[in-house]
From TrEMBL:
<dbReference type="Pfam" id="PF00155">
    <property type="entry name" value="Aminotran_1_2"/>
</dbReference>
<comment type="pathway">
    <text>Cofactor biosynthesis; biotin biosynthesis.</text>
</comment>
<comment type="subunit">
    <text>Homodimer.</text>
</comment>
<dbReference type="InterPro" id="IPR004839">
    <property type="entry name" value="Aminotransferase_I/II_large"/>
</dbReference>
<keyword id="KW-0436">Ligase</keyword>
<dbReference type="InterPro" id="IPR004723">
    <property type="entry name" value="AONS_Archaea/Proteobacteria"/>
</dbReference>
<dbReference type="InterPro" id="IPR015421">
    <property type="entry name" value="PyrdxlP-dep_Trfase_major"/>
</dbReference>
<dbReference type="GO" id="GO:0030170">
    <property type="term" value="F:pyridoxal phosphate binding"/>
</dbReference>
<dbReference type="InterPro" id="IPR001917">
    <property type="entry name" value="Aminotrans_II_pyridoxalP_BS"/>
</dbReference>
<dbReference type="InterPro" id="IPR015422">
    <property type="entry name" value="PyrdxlP-dep_Trfase_small"/>
</dbReference>
<comment type="similarity">
    <text>Belongs to the class-II pyridoxal-phosphate-dependent aminotransferase family. BioF subfamily.</text>
</comment>
<feature type="domain" description="Aminotransferase class I/classII large">
    <location>
        <begin position="54"/>
        <end position="400"/>
    </location>
</feature>
<dbReference type="GO" id="GO:0008710">
    <property type="term" value="F:8-amino-7-oxononanoate synthase activity"/>
</dbReference>
<keyword id="KW-0663">Pyridoxal phosphate</keyword>
<feature type="modified residue" description="N6-(pyridoxal phosphate)lysine">
    <location>
        <position position="254"/>
    </location>
</feature>
<comment type="function">
    <text>Catalyzes the decarboxylative condensation of pimeloyl-[acyl-carrier protein] and L-alanine to produce 8-amino-7-oxononanoate (AON), [acyl-carrier protein], and carbon dioxide.</text>
</comment>
<keyword id="KW-0808">Transferase</keyword>
């Protein structure tokens, strides 16, 4: 006989302490930018089911289709069978398993650097690294469109933050000149690929500045990992700057298809992060299944470069067709995409979210992005092409986009 206690049904709280949160949500609803999470019912794939509806999926970061690749699935299952479902501790106490070290060694060899440390996410890799290597006497020069994890890491470091105009190397140098004689270290940091516009950072020119002024050079390669460079080694490889970039951050959650982030660089940098990076020190390490999955993914990048070729071919076709149809996918007042990230610029936040919902109703998952993720007036539908989309799927997506734009009067120039 069951002895389980029956809990009362939850009721709406009458306490006023969090009323300010309700006010913010009410404001989002008034502006038309409030959203509810869409729920994926099956695998992350070019065509899948969200909220029970079959849709063509242009919203995921699964660039190379590795989220459900059979070799990655088998690697995860085998690691689980032999090593269990969890590590049981943080890395510095009892949670460093041999498979974690093997993954870090594989990534370091792949990136052509001395060492690597894996974090629980790309966000913690950025935030944990920036906040630990600098202090209040130091300076950070950061692109104005850098990812939120870089911004948060900079704030946590308590360093003095100088923001240069997007990809404006001359402005970055002006700021460096202002502080070159100040005590403290200087860090230049940029995204390799900017996640909202899809453009590529000016890494060689920023490396020149770092060399000229003795600054630390750091690149966040989250959206370049598996996409740019030889076999997907990233934007630093793409520009041949591996020996000029002191800190490379990457992700295991996008093209790699699993979960986590990593930092690559010198042996001393990684040993220092082992001792001082707070997300590393105070978070339980990855389950063995995740580490095994990631290693299998890096093997596939080496063995199947044609996946990256397909990704770029699909992206070019999709973007060419969008331009021909009259969609604004960047340029003039907005950075032009240079990667498979394809923003359809709408502008108004409410119009952006309404357009995204209309697309979903017609069978296309293409997420609306509005303030505060992007600046006010810069709302867009962010589409991401993958290597696994077929031409008929892409053509159907284009058909839905064009028909919906004409019906709603939104999206087309």
């Amino acid at each position: 006989m069951s002895t389980a206690t029956t809990l009362p049904e939850p009721t709406a709280s009458k306490r006023p302490q969090l009323a300010h949160l309700t006010a913010v949500l009410d404001d989002l609803r008034a502006k038309g930018t409030f959203f509810r999470l869409r729920v994926l019912d099956d695998q992350q794939a070019p065509v899948c089911h969200y909220d029970g509806r079959e849709v063509i999926n242009l919203a995921s970061n699964n660039y190379l289709g590795l989220c459900n690749h059979p070799k990655l699935i088998e690697a995860a299952l085998e690691a689980t069978r032999t090593l269990g479902v969890g590590s049981g501790a943080v890395r510095t106490i009892a949670g460093t398993m041999k498979i974690h070290m093997e993954l870090e060694e594989k990534i370091a060899a792949f990136k052509g650097v001395e060492a690597c440390v894996v974090f629980q996410s790309g966000f913690t890799a950025n935030a944990g690294t920036v906040s630990s290597i600098l202090g209040k006497e130091d300076f950070i020069l950061s692109d104005e469109l850098n990812h939120a994890s870089i911004i948060d890491g900079a704030r946590l470091s308590r360093a003095k933050i100088k923001v240069f105009r997007h990809k404006d190397v001359a402005h970055a140098e002006e700021l460096l000149k202002e502080v070159q004689n100040e005590p403290g270290r200087k860090l230049i940091i940029t995204d390799g690929v900017f996640s909202m516009d899809g453009d590529i950072g000016p890494i060689p020119a920023l490396c020149d500045l770092a060399d000229k002024y003795g600054a630390i050079m750091m690149v966040d390669d989250a959206h370049a990992s598996g996409v740019l460079g030889r076999n997907g080694r990233g934007s630093v490889s793409h520009f041949g700057c591996t020996d000029r970039v002191d800190i490379q951050v990457g992700t295991l959650s996008k093209a790699i298809g699993a979960l986590g982030g990593y930092v690559c660089g010198s042996r001393d940098l990684i040993d220092y992060l082992y001792h001082r990076a707070r997300p590393f020190l105070f978070s339980t390490s990855h389950p063995p299944s995740v580490a095994a999955t990631c290693m299998a993914a890096f093997d596939l990048l080496e063995a199947e470069p044609e996946r990256i070729d397909r990704l770029w071919a699909n992206a070019k076709y999709f973007q060419d067709q969008l331009r021909s149809a009259g969609f604004n996918i960047g340029g003039i007042t907005t950075p032009a995409t240079e990667t498979p990230i394809t923003p359809i610029i709408i502008g108004d936040g409410r119009a952006t979210m309404d357009f995204s919902r209309a697309l979903f109703d017609q069978g296309l998952m293409a997420t609306g992005i509005a303030f505060p993720t992007v600046a006010e007036g810069k709302g867009r539908i962010r589409c991401i092409m993958t290597s696994e989309h077929t031409k008929p799927q892409i053509d159907k997506a284009l058909e839905i986009l064009t028909a919906t734009a004409k019906k709603t009067g939104v999206g087309l120039a």
